[in-house]
Design a protein that fits this description.
Number of strands: 0
Helix content: 55-70%
Number of helices: 2
Structural class: mainly alpha
Shape: rod-shaped
Strand content: under 5%
Radius of gyration: 36 Å
């Protein structure tokens, strides 16, 4: 008889604990699925993605500048020329102009 009472009691305790756990989980899920919370989660995820895209664009621009400076150094062009603003009407040659030699004509 004592054995049966022990098993019955442990079953009741386990049932109550499972019921409380289930009730808590259902309430948490119901709260998470409320329209206001769903909208907040969606906005937060969109903001995260926008931040990731902005960071990727910044990294891409920085890599582009580094590569451009490397190529300018390799080709002998001034690396700081691209960082200066150009006044309207000013022509900035990106490579030396080829001056035709006297006596030779192009056909």
């Amino acid at each position: 008889m004592m054995k049966r009472l022990t098993w019955f009691t442990s079953g009741v305790v386990a049932g109550i604990a499972a019921m409380r756990y289930g009730r808590r989980k259902v309430r948490q899920t119901a709260d998470a699925l409320r329209p206001a919370n769903v909208a907040k989660d969606a906005v937060a995820k969109v903001r995260e993605r926008v931040d990731e895209v902005v960071d990727a664009a910044r990294q891409g621009r920085a890599a582009m500048r580094e590569r451009e400076d490397e190529l300018r150094a390799r080709t002998g062009l001034a690396a700081d020329m691209s960082r200066q603003p150009v006044e309207p009407g000013r022509v900035v040659p990106l490579r030396p102009l080829k001056v035709p030699r006297p006596g030779r004509r192009r056909a």
